[in-house]
């Protein structure tokens, strides 16, 4: 039998990585605009050590310090387009919160961020329940099997009945809701939260001025039933009902994406936010082995590996740089390591690794599984790429979502065609927009394909300001894309209501249809034609 030689100190190194990974929780908040994501992010960070003051994280227009909104276009509109990462510590844990853009529009960035997290918090407005964007994002979590914790926000304002909200979660998304705590007092007349497992009632008082940790007073179950009044009685009855129908928090079904622990609270006055952080620590999974393209798990303590989930150019206009955000999947990262870029086999130096807090950057010397590293001057890296140290690994590519909006881009100044081509190609590689082309349309008029129309504005803005090329966009009336093959492309050439184009990045042949009706008729008229959805479940 061959004897495996373990280098001296390796066991200690492995156990250090495992211990550090076990302390980490890497998550995102998914919500519909205005449900309170920015407010919740601030409220979460308030309990942690990274950011001391609420308002320092996400500056919407008019708020304090703008940390995550760095592009001029974002500031103009008061929205956050680019995803920022926040890292903070709470108790003994390190929390990595990956921001998903919070505007009504969609971009591929949002989906990619969900590739890099281990858990998501689904944030609901107590008056509105499940809304369109929450549902779309939830579908991505389901497809990726990301476990979801639900936080019902704005309980300080009039809203819906808690049981009705639970029912909606169960009926509309098929997720069994399992309350961790329960509100005493209807929405708008919030008296406190009852911890389901102990019956302890926590009552809150607003911090002066509203921005800060709320005061908390705890009553045991016995004290609460004596002093809690009618609101407590009613809540206790509802809890008894929940116990009867058996909706206790259940870790295996939560991790399998079948149930969702539910917490109530109000982010603005910071009610129930600390409990949400504790729930993350108790329930959310720590980084686990990630499967490679062959389906083999990369163990958490294996040599370093990371997944590029986002690339952002020109975050710092003064330096015109390009940053790749890498989620550490295994091993210990040390700044200065020379990694291998799995796609090309080329070495990749990491001298300029940084921790990214929106626009603030700090040099990052060491990182562990679950952490996010910002690699500066990462011109060769694309979203979905793998980096590794010593032991090769290749993670599956990040699925590309089906575009639903299409526009032709034309350079307004014909003397700048070269820059136009360069800009278009770089934004394509970066994943800002997908570029489609065809011989019929020619090189001067590529088709931009987006998941959400805001991607067009970002593309046009960046072409103008970063590459000095003003462009004109002509929106096309297509709404659906399907993948076909060479014979399908030949069969559909010149058909009305459909157009065949090639995706530049991977050469895939796509057919664009004006509407579903057109797609159905073409399918009917051409049985056997290959017309595959781009990503099952994402449409
Ligand atoms: P978003 O990032 O999900 O888009 O939402 P954001 O945090 O900006 O919150 C949307 C609005 O809801 C904000 O009010 C915010 O103050 C409010 N809000 C968030 N959480 C709570 C809560 O727990 N209780 C109450 N009562 N309100 C909450 P706004 O008037 O639109 O903006 P602002 O002027 O307060 O910034």
Give a structural overview:
- It is a single chain.
- With 539 residues, this protein is an alpha+beta fold.
- It has three domains: 1-23 and 300-399, 3-Layer(aba) Sandwich (Rossmann fold); 25-283, Rossmann fold; 405-525, Peptide chain release factor 3, domain III (Alpha-Beta Plaits, 2-Layer Sandwich).
- It is 27% helix and 28% strand.
- It is built from 14 helices and 31 strands.
- The strands form six sheets. The chain has an eight-stranded antiparallel sheet with strand order 18-17-23-14-15-22-19-20. Strands 27-24-26-25-29-30-28-31 form an eight-stranded antiparallel sheet. Strands 2-3-1-4-5-11-6 form a seven-stranded mixed sheet, sandwiched between helices.
- Strand 14 (305-313) and strand 15 (322-330) form a beta hairpin.
- Helix 4 (108-115) runs parallel beside helix 5 (132-144) and helix 11 crosses helix 12 (454-467).
- The longest helix is centred in the middle third of the chain and has 16 residues, at 229-244.
- The radius of gyration is 25 Å and the shape is globular.
- The N and C termini lie far apart (53 Å).
- Residues 31, 33-39, 60, 63, 102, 153-154, 156-157, 266-268 line the site of guanosine-5',3'-tetraphosphate.
């Amino acid at each position: 039998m061959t004897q495996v030689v373990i280098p001296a100190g390796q066991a200690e190194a492995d156990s250090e990585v495992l211990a550090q990974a076990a302390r980490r929780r890497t998550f995102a908040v998914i919500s519909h605009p205005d449900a309170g994501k920015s407010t919740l992010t601030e409220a979460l960070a308030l309990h942690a050590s990274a950011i001391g003051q609420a308002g320092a994280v996400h500056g919407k227009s008019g708020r304090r310090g703008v940390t995550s909104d760095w592009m001029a276009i974002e500031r103009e509109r008061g929205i956050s387009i680019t995803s920022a990462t926040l890292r903070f510590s709470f108790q003994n844990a390190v929390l990595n919160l990956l921001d998903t853009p919070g505007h009504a529009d969609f971009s591929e960035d949002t989906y990619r961020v969900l590739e890099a997290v281990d858990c998501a918090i689904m944030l609901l407005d107590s008056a509105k329940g499940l809304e369109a964007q929450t549902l779309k994002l939830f579908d991505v979590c389901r497809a990726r099997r990301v476990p979801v914790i639900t936080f019902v926000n704005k309980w300080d304002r009039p809203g819906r009945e808690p049981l009705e909200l639970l029912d909606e979660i169960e009926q509309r998304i098929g997720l069994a809701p399992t309350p961790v705590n329960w509100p005493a007092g209807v929405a708008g007349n919030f008296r406190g939260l009852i911890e389901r497992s102990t019956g302890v009632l926590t009552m809150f008082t607003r911090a002066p001025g509203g921005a800060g940790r709320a005061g908390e007073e705890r009553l045991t179950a016995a004290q609460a039933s004596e002093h809690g009044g009618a609101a407590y009685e009613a809540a206790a009855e509802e809890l008894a009902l929940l116990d009867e129908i058996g909706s206790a928090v259940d870790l295996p079904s939560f991790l399998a994406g079948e149930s969702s622990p539910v917490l109530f609270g109000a982010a603005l006055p910071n009610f129930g936010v600390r409990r949400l952080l504790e729930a993350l620590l108790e329930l959310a999974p720590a980084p686990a082995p990630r499967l490679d393209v062959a389906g083999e798990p990369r163990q958490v303590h294996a040599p370093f590996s990371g997944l590029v989930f986002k690339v952002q150019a020109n975050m710092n206009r003064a330096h015109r740089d390009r940053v790749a955000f890498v989620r550490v999947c295994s091993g210990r990262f040390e700044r200065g390591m020379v990694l291998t870029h799995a796609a090309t086999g080329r070495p990749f130096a990491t001298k300029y690794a940084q921790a990214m807090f929106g626009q603030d950057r700090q040099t990052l010397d060491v990182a562990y599984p679950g952490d996010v590293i910002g690699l500066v001057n990462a011109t060769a890296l694309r979203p979905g790429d793998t980096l590794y140290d010593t032991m090769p690994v290749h993670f599956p590519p990040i699925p590309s979502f089906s575009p639903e909006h299409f526009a032709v881009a034309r350079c307004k100044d014909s003397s700048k065609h070269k820059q136009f081509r360069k800009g278009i190609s770089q934004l394509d590689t970066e994943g800002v927009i997908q570029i489609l082309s065809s011989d019929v349309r020619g090189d001067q008029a590529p088709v931009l394909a987006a998941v959400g129309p805001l991607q067009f504005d970002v593309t046009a803005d960046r072409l103008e300001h970063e590459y000095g090329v003003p462009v004109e966009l002509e929106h096309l009336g297509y709404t659906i894309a399907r993948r076909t093959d060479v014979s399908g492309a030949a069969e559909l050439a010149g058909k009305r209501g459909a157009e065949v184009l090639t995706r530049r990045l991977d050469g895939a042949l796509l057919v664009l249809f004006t509407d579903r009706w057109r797609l159905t008729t073409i399918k009917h008229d051409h049985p056997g034609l290959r017309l595959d959805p781009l990503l099952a479940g994402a449409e």
